[in-house]
Design goal:
Length: about 60
Amino acid sequence: MSERASKTFDCVQSMRQARDRLSAEIADMGYDDLVKWLHGHRYADPLLQRLAEKARLESARTARR
């Protein structure tokens, strides 16, 4: 199997950049701030947004018990 001479998109580099950006954004947050950030985050992908909403609702339901 041959590799292309020139990549148009480097998935590993893109993932590292995203991880570094997120790490820098949440580096100084405490637990409570991080939870608020996660619950308030909006995802571009509708499936991820629905999963995040379900997790938030389940967390709230568990906290009330």
